[in-house]
Amino acid sequence: MYRFLLTPRWWGINVFVLLAIPFCVFMGSWQLSRFEDRMQDHRTATERVDPEDRAPARPLAELLPVDKETSGELATATGRYGEQLLVPDRELDGKDGFYVLTLLRTDAGKSLPVVRGWLPGTADPARAPAAPTGEVTVTGSLQASETPGSNGVPVQGGLPAGQTGAISAATLVNLVPDDLYDAWVTLDKGDAGMKAVPATAPQGSGLDLKAFQNLGYTGEWFVFAGFVVFMWFRLLRREIEFVRDEQLGLVPDDERATDPKEASAEGDDAAEDGRSGEERAPSREAEPAQ
């Protein structure tokens, strides 16, 4: 009954199934591993910004450029405070306020944006404490440049002079003449009575839409694998039922599978009958009329 599995048609079906199932399982496992990697990055980033779990502070130059490994690490830098800006519409502990951002001119000739603290209310230069004078050494959490529209950074334009919507070299380069580091630091202890701004996890390490897309793709690939198995069993069942009906004589002649050998034999018999008919016809014509 199962001899049909050896036909070329079923050979093709079986090979496809044997290749499709491992491929679907592999792709599903790969997508699941991507989701697990993002989960681990999120946990690592969350642990990294906890002051109790971080390594001792290191010089700024050793932590640049900022990436997932160095974001949130304690960095130290020495220089003199320069121009001061405000970052409005920043929420902390459920309250609206603003950051006080001051540029620290280092001995390397570049300026590092330093968030000295947070104040509640509307951004007002008169409320922002002046930065310390003379040479200072700051210690804070290293952060990557912000991107407007992500990680809670608002998309703003047309701000008053002395304010910036995002803390990034690309934004600040249009506001100050300094050569800037592509990073910034938030002090662990707020300066001049301001509240310290906690470090945030690096972008791309949270449970964002991409992470849940990986999880969704995982389910899709495993569903595809199950669908291939389901269709193979369904085709097999239909073929078995067809063979069984054929053996019981329940299949009409026009739907009955024709064996190539039988078809060839029938063709030979028909051809032989045709030749016999042609040979007999002249013999009848040769007989004299009675």
From TrEMBL:
It is found in: Cell membrane; Membrane. InterPro entries: Surf1/Shy1 (IPR002994), Surf1/Surf4 (IPR045214). The chain crosses the membrane at residues 12-32, 215-236. Residues 249-290 are annotated as: Disordered. The keyword Cell inner membrane does not apply. It is a multi-pass membrane protein. It comes from the Bacteria. Keywords: Cell membrane, Membrane, Transmembrane, Transmembrane helix. Residues 249-264, 272-290 have a biased composition (Basic and acidic residues). The keyword Membrane applies. Its main location: membrane. Belongs to the SURF1 family. This is SURF1-like protein. It comes from Streptomyces heilongjiangensis.
